[in-house]
Amino acid sequence: MSETALIDGVIPRAAVVKRAPRIGAEIRDIKLSGDLPDEIIAAIKGLLLDHKVIFFRDQGHLDDAEHERFALRFGKPMLSPTLDPAKGTMSILEIASGGFRTDAWHIDFSYLDAYPKTLLLRGAIIPPVGGDTVWSNTAAAYLDLPAPLQRLADDLWAVHSNAHDFAVFARPTEAEKRVYDEALTRASFETEHPVVRVHAETGERTLVLGLYVKRFVEVPKHDGQRLFDLFEAHITSPENTVRWNWKQGDVAIWDNRATMHYAVRDYCDQPRVVRRVAIDGEVPVGVNGRCSVARIKIIRQPPAPSSTS
Prior knowledge:
309 residues, alpha+beta, Double-stranded beta-helix, disordered N terminus
């Protein structure tokens, strides 16, 4: 679907400003809400498929409830399976400095067999300097691969897990490790995904890698690491990326099936809080038609509170 068909008569062409040649666009002069007309929502969805990640400034009117209402227009919100259920049932996840680390390239929840298709992130508290997020276009990265490497990637499968390797983070603290250890005690996941999935809506081939990859199927660890580094280098090439300088009230929406992202951790002890809604996605399908498979899926119930007489 062409950009002209998506925006003519609905969103003025001048309101869509590309932020990088291969990925990312800022959409101006739209006030996001759950009450937007269907044709505006359809145009936003189309722009998202075209640009992979889209940005909206000056959305400070959104609170958690309206953020969630708007997100419902994109599908069914999912709750994080590794979070403490005592924290409530809203689909809003708060990501704050001192909590989960996101300063590594990743696909959100890729350790699930059906990981989210869309994420909607709102800047609540933004440091005066730093705290940018970088997204990469994994469809463009696949197209950049030489044909022999495309064929190799098409045949590869990788195991994704929420068991974290802290070697990917710079100087993790004991408190940060406890956050992940507590999440792992609540739920454990391991899934085999194709390294190349076929996008359910666009038909594009996109690379599926990132932080949660533990190994390639039937590939020795040493060789697997070299392959991982090779493909990741294409995904994170500057030509395939866009960097967003957050302001309070900004909203970013990205296609989690065609991107990876990295939250830059350069704001020292300044507070940074963003709030996110994840939208249910479909099980990935590889080039050969084979679907991803969950190998481990354990969600542990919290112990019942003890009663005293």
